[in-house]
Amino acid sequence: MRNSISRLAASIGLGASLFAGSLVAPATAQAEGEIRIAEQFGIVYLLLNVVRDQNLIEKHGKAQGIDIKVDWTQLSGGAAINDALLSGSVDIAGAGVGPLLTIWDRTQGRQNVKAVASLGNFPYYLVSSNPKVKTIADFSEKDRIALPAVGVSVQSRFLQYAAAKQWGDKEYNRLDKYTLAVPHPDATAALLAGGTELNAHFSNPPFQDQVLANKDVHVVLNTYDLLGPNSPTVLFATEKFRNDNPKTYKAFVDALAQAAEFAQNDKAAAADTYIRVTKAKIDREALLKIIDNPQYEFSVTPKNTYPLAEFLYRVGAIKHKPESWKDYFFQDEKPLQGS
User: Signal peptide span per the entry (predicted)?
Assistant: First the structure.
């Protein structure tokens, strides 16, 4: 199935390689003045596109008197992102709150991984081409749900959160058996083309918007209905990288804050940046319509992440209970005022 989906993706121009860069593991820790960043697919990573396009890390590094070499890598799925960070192959990891909480929980007392910042607030849609599936209660063995990483990705955790609300905490993983790990571009291509066993996708923008162009595809679940406005995707790092590279780390944080202000205040320029950097096959006006949605907010301040953290502890998916969102976010000289 995976090969057929990949071929479909390529045939309609949505496919993308899992690796835009290369990972070498194990790798040695980077010295001050070097930073390696791993991102994934979608508009939720637009702040990183802006940082890259405008060379903002390099600019903020020069303001501190250092030259910074930036390396960019693209992967799919929180599991791959977490592995890359723990192997020492990357320094900054971009993934959902789900993968963050998993790695935060498992590295306490060792690498002490925490989040650096949010990438903004965006609704994620669970979509299906099965007309019988109106709610998550309608999924059956006839359905296959694509998401970036089974049991780890924020989409997977959102699905578990929804299942717990539907059937109770003991049944939180009831729908996991119907899920498959498929990159967003490939899953989108499969649903647009039809004809594969894959008939549902827990997506993110712009892929969820593109796939709704298929009249047979409809929204089953909107995460804003599930949790309210929230920050689904974040950036995180090890305590060692933050402590050993204070100037590089600060340059990155300052660059990200500048990118957020740029994207939030100039949506047209942000759309142009996304197309230019990602080379996405998407109409500019269609993209601008997506990101001009008032529900989309480009911000480094996390919003409403704690309910998912509390849930994961309650069902035993993580062993350490965070007392607040501040437990899994670094608190820098300009502390975030989040939730």
Answer: 1-31
